Amino acid sequence: MDRILRVDMAALAARVEPLPQEYRLLGGRALTSRIVADEVDPRCDPLGPKNKLVLAPGLLSGTPLSSSSRISAGAKSPLTGGIKESNGGGQTGARLAQLGYRAVVIEGAPSGNGWWLMVVEPNGARFEPADDLLGLGTFETARRLFDRFGKKAALMVLGPAGEQMMNIAGICNTDVEGRPSRLCARGGLGAVMGSKRLKAIVMPDCGWKPPVPVDESLWKIASKAYIKELRTQPATSVRYPQFGTAATLELVNKLGGLPIRNFRYGQDPRTDAISGFRMREIILKRGGRPTHSCMTGCAIQCSNVYTDEEGNEIASSMEFETNGLLGANLEVFDFDAIARFTRECNDLGVDTIETGGAIGVAMEAGLIPWGDVDGIFRLFREIRSGTVLGKLLGQGAGTTGKVLGVRRVPVVKNQTLSAYDPRAIKGNGVTYVTTPMGGDHTAGNTIALQIDHLDPAGKVAISRQIQLQTTLLDVLGFCSFARGVLNATPQTFADLFNARMGSNLTPDDMMAYALDVIRREVRFNVAAGQPAYERLPEWMREEPLPPHNAVFDVPEEEYSRIWDL
Amino acid sequence: MDRILRVDMAALAARVEPLPQEYRLLGGRALTSRIVADEVDPRCDPLGPKNKLVLAPGLLSGTPLSSSSRISAGAKSPLTGGIKESNGGGQTGARLAQLGYRAVVIEGAPSGNGWWLMVVEPNGARFEPADDLLGLGTFETARRLFDRFGKKAALMVLGPAGEQMMNIAGICNTDVEGRPSRLCARGGLGAVMGSKRLKAIVMPDCGWKPPVPVDESLWKIASKAYIKELRTQPATSVRYPQFGTAATLELVNKLGGLPIRNFRYGQDPRTDAISGFRMREIILKRGGRPTHSCMTGCAIQCSNVYTDEEGNEIASSMEFETNGLLGANLEVFDFDAIARFTRECNDLGVDTIETGGAIGVAMEAGLIPWGDVDGIFRLFREIRSGTVLGKLLGQGAGTTGKVLGVRRVPVVKNQTLSAYDPRAIKGNGVTYVTTPMGGDHTAGNTIALQIDHLDPAGKVAISRQIQLQTTLLDVLGFCSFARGVLNATPQTFADLFNARMGSNLTPDDMMAYALDVIRREVRFNVAAGQPAYERLPEWMREEPLPPHNAVFDVPEEEYSRIWDL
């Protein structure tokens, strides 16, 4: 797995390179960010040929260890203008690792107008025209590719949004059953892939070839310890398997931090209709799957399959962020509607958070009424067909707000905040303004902590700790639900890392490693002409959020020193 | 004139304050930028209540000296995100000075939804509802206000674009005959005025009360020397009086730097139809006015009145930048069409450069064909009525390009470049990337110099010199055509300054003063989270511009040190 596949889209050629010695211990986010920082001009046009799209499985991806096979995509983001890493579940992380690649670096752009698909092979890659797939949704695209390359292929595909190089476009990874519904969603990395005119990346079946740990005996001990802890913690053993991420909605609503009506309210009794509990009830009644794994071998199985009353699948999976941004935030308190939104977003190949943010802002501007399900579908059609309005929404909430003249736009670094209003969930607010990634909870979500989320005190230290831990998860390929295990047993994580890589890092060394990753990312952003830390939008520091009437009040003097730059 | 009028729009109240001692020698751009830098949070929302709109006549405005009564408007720009000063001709600069104000500082925003007009009086200001004027073009707005406040009032008004807080919106100053056609055009300052819900600022007649110079005998000597030089130099004595700015088109076309078809070509024989020579011919034949002054007492009279074949006025004035950006750049080689565009832009209250840039990008995206005059009028109607497409264009070329997926967008700091392609006119390219003002030739236009504009050598020093001189003009209230006089006789300028202010500055002191102004502006931008210097768009450094097949090649290492920060 110590090889890099370097792809020149201008020449439609790929070559295998040895992993540079200084990248020896890097994987996932550490490697995507390092290659972007080392090779991409921070001030380049993110949709021009000088940007590079880097894909990297986590260091443990492809091993049989539960919940560790995520794939990172990295580039300069057209949405935030800064460096971005976005990781996704599904089957591609494990496959890329098993094909023997630590990273795929996609450079340049084809000179003609044609579109391509890239077939990744154990010793290179080949290219085939993809013009016949243009305009297709991700599901039909995936169906045709499975027909050609076999059901066991793992795919990364773009939908119509990625083809149109929209900022809301993600890269869609296929799950265990082949749904292209596991997105590297945030930051418009689908647009970067679109700028390379790659409709799909196909990773054909190569048999089951898990990477071999350097220290197999330590690996056995550490992986046992990991699984034991995963099966002991209530979140990963009971809550996520039963309710998935959807149960987070009750919690955030209770804390008064759920986005309602474009982040105008933090709590609403109508959310009972879209709670995790209610979702499970509906799924069980209709014969869907309340628990389901997105990648092979996951012990948590937080995913689900949501069906209609006849038992036909609508969407997999229903997630808290989608229920928040495309549900509560738009005043749609109806799971069937949200499930159809989810399906549509997966087929368009878009980030449900950014899309929900943009539609919320469009509602604020009066384009369609709050809660107007048919209106939302009309907007999806505008996006799909690329009308001016569709393209505008496709730029995300920030640009939509600027153009439509809306001041209440919930973005940081031009990116829609996740479904935790930072006025009520202050640790996440600190994450939004200090992560190099923009308004993105996946960089460091404090919600699982038993703390007073309203109190600004101590939130900088808490966000810092969680951001560092999350970075390690993103390096190893772990899903974020493994953070509880990392927090409880950091030595286990160091053991897994060392066993796999033949290294000798202490838990403290690993946190220093994570800090180095983040600092490099921040330096890239500064070189791109961005500030080293951000602010929440002015109105979030002034407009009280009911029911707690909270504003964001973590002092800038405090959070601006978070990385000791 | 040593007083500041401070306006609180939240309270609809104004009070007169003494000029702080440290602002004693500041006027025009120096004062708007100083107040913005001292009082406005660089990271505030430019369209929120924390931004301030500062108006300041030049230090010589209101004196009888020719071409010295311009008015500066300053704020944090919603277009560039940085500090902005934009100055305009017409009658308001002299009036504000004669009303006794060095500056007007407009803060806050009204709490309700009403719109207002502010009547500036010698000892304060009063406010009247302006809701009856909403939606009106600037001409009808001005007509109604002259009816109410007398023909001799001087006005600053917004059109529909400013009301909609569009980035293309300027602030329209009335000229000698009352046309609202003298814009503080660039940088979206009309949007900032709109965010204060001020439809118009009325400065009623106060008699002719020119500011009295401190040293009247020196003033007499220096003003004589100034006028003599103005009447000697060929540009100000022959070329501008005869052809106005329109004659610049032949020169720039000859140099291969005129924007044709969204900056795709630098030269086109069809531009013969829109040359300054041709314009004068048409105007003379139809009985318009080939020469005309925008402000009382101007000896240059570069303005003009363009009529139709029946002798009815279409627009005043036809300017090079408009002929470039809304003519050549859109492949409209027809003066009658451009005159009607000019009229429409003045009535909408928009910057013709930014509007031309946005329409050029929309044409590049295929929205309407090149040269489609009817299509352009259709787009103007979209802007006026605020459709989604109209609002998009109203954000300027940068956002239009992002949303429509166009890579060839001619902006720096999100602002459309003036009608000098920086690949052929390299000194202006240096100005675009180094001025804190964005892609704006008014910060330092090198075109009048007899140099090899294609050669990158020496252009940093040249742009620096011109930017410093231009800053001084912007401080004193001079029109940029006085730069030739300043360059030839810097002592005369120092004498005028010293006579007026009672100071004792040498020409070198004045250049140091200008450098201080620019450095403060750059520091504001850096504090706003911007880089200290910009880059041209990637494609302008790579795509050769016919006929010289030039790219922009002034080294970044060289121009990044221009202000020795």
UniProtKB/TrEMBL annotation, chains A, B:
The keyword Iron applies. Its cofactor is [4Fe-4S] cluster; tungstopterin. Residues 1-206 form the Aldehyde ferredoxin oxidoreductase N-terminal domain. Gene3D superfamilies: Aldehyde Ferredoxin Oxidoreductase Protein, subunit A, domain 2, Aldehyde Ferredoxin Oxidoreductase Protein, subunit A, domain 3, Aldehyde ferredoxin oxidoreductase, N-terminal domain. Keywords: 4Fe-4S, Iron, Iron-sulfur, Metal-binding, Oxidoreductase. GO terms for molecular function: 4 iron, 4 sulfur cluster binding; electron transfer activity; metal ion binding; oxidoreductase activity, acting on the aldehyde or oxo group of donors, iron-sulfur protein as acceptor. Residues 67-88 are annotated as: Disordered. Residues 67-77 have a biased composition (Low complexity). InterPro entries: Ald_Fedxn_OxRdtase_dom2 (IPR013984), Ald_Fedxn_OxRdtase_dom3 (IPR013985), Ald_Fedxn_OxRdtase_N (IPR013983), Ald_Fedxn_OxRdtase_N_sf (IPR036503), OxRdtase_Ald_Fedxn_C (IPR001203), Tungsten_al_ferr_oxy-like_C (IPR036021), W-dependent_AOR (IPR051919). PANTHER family: ALDEHYDE FERREDOXIN OXIDOREDUCTASE, TUNGSTEN-CONTAINING ALDEHYDE FERREDOXIN OXIDOREDUCTASE. Belongs to the AOR/FOR family. This is Aldehyde ferredoxin oxidoreductase.
